Structure formats: C-alpha cells, structure tokens
Amino acid sequence: MKLWRPGITAKLFLAILTTCIVLLISMHWAVRLSFEHGFIDYIKRGNEQRLQMLSDALGEQYATHGNWRFLRGNDRFVFQILRSFEHEGQDDKHGGPPGGPPDMPPHGWRTQFWVVDQNAKVLVGPRAPIPPDGTRRSIVVNGVGVGAVIASPVERLTRNTDINFDRQQRRTSWLIVALATLLTALATFPLARGLLAPVKRLVEGTHRLAAGDFSTRVTATGADELGRLAQDFNQLASTLERNQQMRRDFMADISHELRTPLAVLRGELEAIQDGVRKFTPESVVSLQAEVGTLTKLVDDLHQLSMSDEGALAYQKAPTDIVSLLEIAAGAFRERFASRGLKLSLKMPESARVFGDPDRLMQLFNNLLENSLRYTDSGGQLQISAEKSLHHLTLEFADSAPGVTDQQLEMLFERFYRTEGSRNRASGGSGLGLAICVNIVAAHGGKLTAAHSPFGGVSIKVELPLDRDLPGNV
Fold first, then answer.
1. pTM over 0.85
2. Cα–Cα distance between 333 and 439 in angstroms, integer?
3. Under 8 Å between Cβ of 391 and 462
4. Which of 33-47, 60-74, 199-213 has the lowest mean pLDDT?
5. Strands 380-387 and 342-346
6. 157-169: per-residue pLDDT in tens?
7. Integer Rg of the chain from CA
8. What pLDDT score does 441 carry?
9. Which of 17, 292, 333, 460 is least enclosed by beta carbons within 10 angstroms?
10. What is the CB-side half-sphere exposure of residue 438 using CA atoms within 13 A?
11. At what angle do helices 357-374 and 432-442 cross, to 10 degrees?
12. First-to-final CA distance of the chain
C-alpha cells in the first residue's frame, strides 16, 4: 500500500493553518484569562463599594438608635438597606424599583458577609466562621469604631448567574475559534496554491528540461526571488538550447569537413584501382595533399578542444610583443610576397605583456595565415600597435575582399567561412579564429573584428599591459 506523501502545497497549507490555529488558541486562552481575572476584579470592586455604603448606612442607624439591638438577628433589615442602594441605582437608570423578595440578598451581592459589633460578635450573617482574609470595612460613629462589615474573599465565581455567564462566554469564544479556523482553512488553501504556483511551474519546467526539451520556458511573474529564479531558469534553458544547436552544428560541420577530402581520396584510389588513372608521382602528390588537409583539420580540432578546456599549457613570462610580431612577420614575409601582398608593421619600440610566448606566437601565426589565405592578390596587410595606460591594442587590417556586417559578427564561430574568396577554396578549416579567441581570453584580453579601412577585415587584439615591466612606462 502506497503511503500518501504531502506535496509542497499541502505542506505549506498545513504549516500556515497550524500556525493560525496555534495563534487562535493562544489568543483564546489569553482572552479567557483576561476575562476571568477582569470579571473577578469587577466583582471585588462592586463588593467593596457596597461594603462601604453598607457600613456608612449602618453607622447612621447606630447613631439613631444608640446601640445594636435593632440589628441583632435582623438580616432582613440589612437586605432592605442594600436594596435601597440598588433601588436608587435603578431609579436613576431605568426609572423603576428593583424586584426580588425583601428577605434575600440583592442581585449585585455575590459573596457572604457579616456585620459584627465592637466586640467582634456577629450581629448579622451566616453561621459559617468569619474568614480571616475577608474584606473589612469599619463602622465609625462620631470618630469611634462601633463595629465592622466583613465580606468573604472573591477568588472564584459562586453565583449561578455568574457561572452561567462565564460558561456562555467560554462557549462563544470556542465557537469563534472554530469559525476562525474554518475561515483560515478556506483562505489558506488558495493562498498556498497561489504562492506556490510559480514554484510548480519551475518544477514542471525543470522536469521537461531534464527530459531534453530545451525549448521549455516558464512565465516570470513579479520581481521577487521567484521571478528572478524564473528569469535565470529561462536563461539557462536558452543557453542549453543554444549549446545543443551549436553541438549539432559542430558535428554537422565536422562531418562536412571530413567528407570532402575523404571523398576525393576514395575517388582517386578507386580510379587507380580500376585502371582509369595511373599510379604516378602526381597522383601520390594529390593524395598526400588530401591527407594533409585531413591532418590539419584533426590538429585544429585537437587544438580547439584543448583551448576550450583550458588544457593548453601556458607558461607565462614577461614577453615583448613587438619582438614576437617581427619574428612572425619575418617568417611570413616571403609567402606574402609570392602572392603579391604587401606586409607592413607600425609598432612601438617595445611593448611587454605577461604571457606565454609560444601561444602568442600561435595567435599571430593564425592571424597572419588568415589574412594570407583570404586577401586578394595585390592587396596588403598592415599590423599596427597602440599603447594606452593599461592595454596594448594590436590591429591586423587587410585589404579586399571585405565582409558584410552580418558576416562580421560570425567570423569567430567554428567552421564559419564567408562567401566569395574567403571560402573553402582558399584552404583552412575555419577553426583558426576560434582558437585565437581562446588564446586571447587566456591572457585576459579581448578579440574583436571590424571593417578594415583598406576594404577587408580588421582584427583587433587587446591585451593587458603590465606597468611594472620595463618598456611599458
């Protein structure tokens, strides 16, 4: 049998409901204690007031009669005096006399009381012993104490009407607690569902995302933490979707790059095997060229994967960029001249950075090779450097053909080639600039592309200068 496990909505609902119930019960007991203590205090104050009035009235009667003979055993006389007090109050409030038998205590009196003389002998009152902690009011006539009125202490409710009233209040308060609990439950459930609706959407979106549906998006409502979490979720899903598409494109591009040289190799080998083409030194050179293309593509892929993972070994040291560029340009100068291209450098005397000379040389070689392959004969490549306070900016600006603005934004994508002269026919795998991006990033710099003033493409390399190194001040 499967046990029921509450979800987050049920847990939140139960948590809020339990908290409200605890608060309601606590408030109920606090109100009950306050009411009971307040009610008893109210009775005490009423009794004390009546005791004082009764002692004053009995003092007047004592002064009239001169002794206590008129009161001994005459409880009815005391009750009449008390009823006269109540009669005055009723006349003032309601305009009518009070009811009730004349030999019973009045309605407002809630405790036992005794009237004693100056010798502490009981004149009026029950036969029960006088409590030592009772409330006492002295009866004074002409400055002399002639007796006292004593009432039993009020510690709890004793009259049936008071007890019934207290019970009624208790039932009413518990009924209020029950109704408040019901209303709380009715209000808490939709509140819990509303609060957790964004969380549920995120949970459902996460499940779809984990299942491979990277097009999943959730609605971001509000600017609170859940709203920001939904925005981050959508950004994550967008990144995963983009990476998945890039991976698919990457695999398609690799298969496309491998297909062409393999097809050429297979065609030429089949032609030799069928006798259509003779096995000559020229055919061997053609086969070696295709094998070289495959080898370079594999090497570029290996370099790219290593640079992506940061696996390329970087042994950084203070390096003079100007010297590296002059060495790299010197190695390419003859090849540029063979294609009718002019190579010029406008460099400062020195510019030192903290970097890996081998990787920086690989960067410059890739940029020079890129311009050599994709610049029309008779053109030029100008390499210039400009130092600022904290950076060194290198610009590789070549001549036609140029690229469009849309193509310019895609130059650093893997396997990307523009149309025209910058295509497969010029050679290359389309990975050189992607490798350059990783090398520059590993040195804390930035690689950008723009339109060249000579009609081609301008590649800018921005590297941080080390101001503590000589030659940078």
1. no
2. 24
3. yes
4. 33-47
5. parallel
6. 555 556 677 777 7
7. 52
8. 87
9. 292
10. 21
11. 150
12. 80
